[in-house]
Design goal:
Elements (H helix, E strand, L loop, with lengths): L1 H19 L3 H5 L7 H22 L1 H9 L7 E2 L2 E2 L9 H5 L18 E5 L9 E5 H19 L5 E4 L7 H10 L4 E4 L4 H11 L4 E6 L1 H10 L8 E6 L6 H9 L4 E6 L9 E2 L2 H12 L1 H7 L8 E4 L5 E5 L4 E6 L11 E10 L1 H10 L16 E7 L4 E3 L2 E3 L1 H9 L2 H4 L2 E10 L5 E9 L10 H15 L1 H9 L6 E6 L20
Parallel strand pairs: 5-6, 5-7, 7-8, 8-9, 19-20
Antiparallel strand pairs: 1-2, 3-4, 9-10, 11-15, 12-13, 13-14, 14-15, 16-17, 18-19
Helix pairs in contact: 1-3, 3-4, 6-7, 10-14, 11-12, 14-16, 16-17
Length: 500
């Protein structure tokens, strides 16, 4: 009976929500404050309903459950215990079963399906299939979110994500054209500059792309950005608050991030003015930061998300496990581990911590909703280990933008670990200089001291590791002219590769 009740409840919930998607005023009802306990219950019931559908109708998922010895989902009252369901990921599910086997009915629909692929930045590119209904719903959510962030005046969106088969290129174009003017140029500096110059100052431009390319666009352009109304929407990787400050000092009006994953959905959660102010407060208040964060190193990105659509859990290792509760996905994702580090922080818990530490809430921008927060620390496997310290690309980016010695001259970076014949480890940080910068203008000894001193402030584990690295040449800073050395063959169309 509990099983039937939960399935009936999930069906009623979707019946209620569908009409709300048709107008902005109605959609705003979904985000009313005070309903997070209900939203969490909704998340579990919808995830359970999708689990039952996948178990019955998706051959790959049925085989996966059998291979992993799944028995049943227990209930605590009317709440299904989704932790009884084994976790899927790319290795144990996607790479084992074919695309058709992972679709409802064991076959992709014969039409209205878009097949895109992830960038392959972590290996061979993987294909993903998205049906018409899921694309339409995602586009509607993006439209609603953009209006809330950027206002209701017309937008001129420039898609600077990689075009072609990549998920961002295909789906961003299809999703945004329904509510804005749009030009899909990919990461082409010259074409983006020419477009903005030709269409003039009367538009609100929204350039969407990866953070390294957006910085490259600003640094290499002869546009006076302060004369134009330009906002940036970025994704694919983190951006430090220092980098945000830097870009806004050049004239970019607003900068927001959206968290998505090709494996799951392109718009799982998003930044807003409140979450950005919270992240900045973490930057300036070390006590508050230590109380909130669970991993050392650079600041996590902070987003808000709707738990009715996504059930988000965290493993013992600190990795995010996500179940999509929205129906109509042709390839359901149940308890899928994207191998990103993160955790959920309810707004009620945040307010209690602020009160505990006597922090005045007026230091934060007023939140428009009490949806839970998602703290996202990046890829779980995107670090190098140096004397026990895990150092991530976000740590290096934050180090660069904490000092004008580097932020004004550096274009990109990569991280490497060398080991000599005696077994001594060496941390090597390679910095690519901007196009108009030369190595001769840098005082290398001072730069090295400044860089690793800043990194020690950001990453407390590195601060301790540095004490163990007794030899001067065990932390090395290398400079390379633009597009030379390890940066020579970089493909700016896809996410940057930060390891060498």
């Amino acid at each position: 009976m509990r099983h039937l009740f939960v399935l009936f409840y999930a069906w009623l919930l979707e019946l209620y929500r569908k009409p709300l998607m048709h107008s902005d005023r109605a959609m705003a009802l979904i985000f009313l404050p005070g309903f997070n306990r209900l939203r969490l219950y909704n998340a579990k019931t919808r995830a359970y309903a999708e689990f039952i559908k996948a178990k019955r109708r998706v051959p790959a998922y049925r085989a996966f459950l059998e291979a992993n010895g799944f028995k049943r989902v227990r209930f605590n009252g009317l709440v299904p215990n989704m932790q009884d369901v084994p976790i899927t990921d790319k290795d144990n599910y996607v790479k084992i079963y074919s695309m058709d086997q992972r679709c409802v009915g064991g076959k992709m629909p014969i039409k209205n399906v878009i097949i895109d692929e992830s960038s392959g930045s972590s290996g061979t590119a993987t294909n993903w299939a998205r049906g018409k209904k899921e694309r339409k719903r995602n586009a509607r959510i993006i439209q609603f979110g953009m209006k809330n962030l950027l206002g209701r005046n017309p937008l001129f969106i420039i898609n600077a994500f990689a075009l072609g088969p990549w998920a961002t290129g295909v789906n961003i174009t299809m999703g945004c054209v329904t509510f804005s003017k749009l030009k899909s140029l990919g990461p082409d500096e010259t074409k983006i500059q020419n477009t903005i110059k030709q269409f003039g100052t009367d538009h609100h431009y929204v350039v969407m792309g990866y953070p390294p390319f957006l910085k490259l666009l600003v640094d290499h352009s002869d546009i006076n950005w302060k004369e134009y109304n330009v906002s940036f929407i970025f994704g694919g990787e983190s951006m430090s608050e220092g980098m945000r400050d830097y870009l806004m000092s050049k004239g970019i009006r607003r900068i927001y991030s959206s968290l998505g994953a090709s494996d799951l959905e392109l718009n799982i959660s998003a930044e807003n003015d409140f979450t950005i102010s919270l992240r900045r407060l973490l930057r300036s208040n070390e006590v508050f930061r230590n109380r909130i964060t669970r991993h050392t190193g650079a600041l996590p990105m902070i987003f808000q998300y709707n738990p009715t659509d996504f059930l988000i859990e965290t493993t013992e290792e600190g990795e995010l496990v996500i179940s999509i509760g929205r129906p109509d996905y042709i390839a359901p994702k149940i308890r899928y581990n994207i191998h990103d580090r993160g955790h959920v922080l309810p707004m009620k818990e945040l307010k209690a911590i602020l009160k505990e530490l006597a922090i005045d809430e007026s230091q934060l921008v007023k939140a428009q909703t009490d949806l839970p927060l998602l703290l996202h620390y990046g890829r779980a496997d995107s670090t190098v280990s140096f004397f026990g310290a895990n150092i991530s690309p976000t740590d290096i980016q934050e180090t660069i933008y904490n000092s004008s010695m580097f932020s004004d001259v550096v274009n990109s970076f990569c991280i490497g670990i060398n080991e000599n014949d005696e077994g001594d480890k060496q941390l090597v940080i390679s910095l690519e200089l901007q196009q108009n910068q030369s190595e001769e203008s840098l005082e290398k000894g001072l730069a090295q001291s400044e860089f690793f001193g800043q990194l020690a402030k950001i990453n407390q584990d590195f601060r301790e590791a540095k004490k163990m690295a007794s030899k001067d040449d065990q932390t090395v800073l290398c400079f390379y002219p633009f597009h030379t050395g390890p940066f020579e063959d970089r493909d700016i169309r896809i996410k940057a590769k930060y390891f060498q």
